[in-house]
Fold this sequence. Notes:
phenylalanine-tRNA ligase activity; ATP binding; BirA Bifunctional Protein, domain 2; metal-binding; Phe_tRNA_ligase_alpha1_bac; 9 strands
Amino acid sequence: MQHEAITEIQAAQTLDDLQGVKTRYVGKSGLVTKELGTLGRLPPEERKARGAEINAVRQAIDAALTEREGVLKRAALDAKLSSEAIDVTLPGLGLPSGGLHPINRVYDELIGIYERLGYAVVEGPEVEDEHYNFEALNVPWYHPARDLQDTFWLEDGRLLRTHTSPMQIRYMVEHEPALKVVVRGKVYRYEATDATHESMFHQLEGLVVGEGISMADLKGTIAEMARGLYGASAKVRFQPSYYPFVEPGADFAVWWENPRGESKWLELGGCGMIHPNVFKAVDDLREAQGKARVYEGQTGFAFGLGPERIAMLKYGVPDIRYFYANDPRVLGQFRGELG
Ligand code: PHE
């Protein structure tokens, strides 16, 4: 019986199996226990020897049970630990990386060009006073841009700026000439949207003021920007145009040798020499703030352009609305290279 019990104990693969073997041999009605119960029926002279024999069997079985139990418990613990262990050699979970929005990429390129030319870079408020957006920029009350159809007016009489040009006024009120500055930021127009029009878009505005600044400086600056964007073959073209805050005013376009042979003039923006009425409006605002009138008699130029147009062409985006629809299939194509 001892031999069978020990064979079964050693064959037990789990603690449950082992409990079964234990019950069968040394439990309350186990085989060894029963055997002990028969002692009383033996003649007294045999009882002692038989008793000792059965106790020896029981002790051997108990010892084997304890040992096997130790082995099985350790194995169970090992299995639990290894299932929880961290394998530091496994590859990590990939983190999705972001990317710069295409408009910000174009801004970075443009602003890089102007920073190299020594321009300051500023931003201004998107909620603007009528005076800065129109009046001080010599936009007459009857100008169509003032119409409710074109401008988002707020209930308090202010508006969402329709261009970045009001920052010309704000900057000159705060700074004396000579100055060179570019303004980046969002602008808003109340109009129907289509593939080339959005009610919110961006502008880069340039302003240069100093003694003797001329139209030649303006043309040279725009040409320098075109070469910075498109390389040495880039050409610029100016066509007369009307903006109330410049005189003379012009629209400018850029042409360059496109490797795909699809070169054509790209209309980029407006520009011109600062209108004397603008300098006067700035001096009036300065005077009202107790500052010196320093702009009358100065000359300068300004220009404004839209990075969306550059980005659409550069990245082959056919519809301006894609930039702001937040569709990950569009913006996901600009993932990864930050910078
Ligand atoms: N502010 C003009 C626009 O939004 C662009 C412009 C800026 C024109 C500076 C001339 C000078 O259309």
